[in-house]
Amino acid sequence: MIPDASPYYTYSTEVTDAYLHRSPGAYLKNPTPDSPKALKLAYRRYRRRMPIPATALPVNVLFVHGIGMNKGVWHYLIDRLYQRFSGSGKLQISTVIAIDTVNHGESAFANRGRLGQSYDWHDGAFDIIKVATKDEASVFFSQTPKLNILVGHSAGATTALYASAYNQGLFDSCVAINAVVYLGPDEIQLKNNTITEWIYKGFMNSTICVEDPVKYREEVFQMYRRNGFYYKCHPLILKNMVEDEIPSDLTSVSSGDKIQLNTTTEALIMLYFYRGFNNEHSRICFSNINIPVFSISVENDQANTKHTQELILLLKRVHRGISIPKATHMVHAEEPELIVQLLGSIMEERALLNARL
């Protein structure tokens, strides 16, 4: 990860059990009462080095990535957030969690040979809740005053919204960056055509043939850089994301070797064709959310207007809209400093209001 160390925090990668009772098709072979073996979930945990001043409110954040990304996409932003509040006497970043969903990054590596042919975004919400309430309960349920904030991008934003509905008291607020919440019939056909084009162009390729064994990491990075999804990404963010895609058991590489990256082409295709957010159950979930939702939307995003209108309709009084002109769906990876500023402002506002309770 870049940076690999900080005077403000330490970090480590943890692997835990994912939520066990998943939707049909989630497992290649379903767990049984005699063998209740859950999928694995990898997450990176960041912890503040120094004690938090008595006058400062601790802020805990949980990040969820979108399709085709992983927890590494958040590392640079997390580092900048720790820096931003390092001298603040009013709030301090305490603990941060960044999750790899079960079929992405290091979670996908841990689940090789066990993942089924489908994935329900609602299961991802229960993974979030499981990590926060079981694995990191001492952080998110501590008795001291604190602020727990949930942040997601794209499919991760939708998953974060589900988690906000399913466990109302866990998070103070949710930040949904370009959430995918609605596609009309015309948008579905357009999206299907676009996905088919992405497949044809090789944007979902998950293997690479090594040319120079000494520089294979750079070759993986350049493969992503040529991809239409990622070519505008901040270079450090993309390098961190690539790092979480290289299998941990890769000890030696020779010229001509093929590397299978952690997130597979099959998983990406399955996820991009997912339409489970487009049903009544999802709309009921969204309408039951009772914490503030800061919905960040951008000008240049497919079906963005429909997503935004649907969120406003369903979230009603808890919706807080933030519109970014001249930005794209990947704004968090392309303009990280802007997102850091917005997240920082949201945290300051929530801390100020919580101080009055």
Automatic annotation (TrEMBL):
It comes from the Eukaryota. One of its GO terms (molecular function) is hydrolase activity. Pfam families: Abhydrolase_6. InterPro entries: AB_hydrolase_1, AB_hydrolase_fold, Carboxylesterase_BioH. Residues 61-341 form the AB hydrolase-1 domain. SUPFAM superfamilies: alpha/beta-Hydrolases. Keywords: Hydrolase. The keyword Aminoacyl-tRNA synthetase does not apply. This is Alpha/beta-hydrolase.
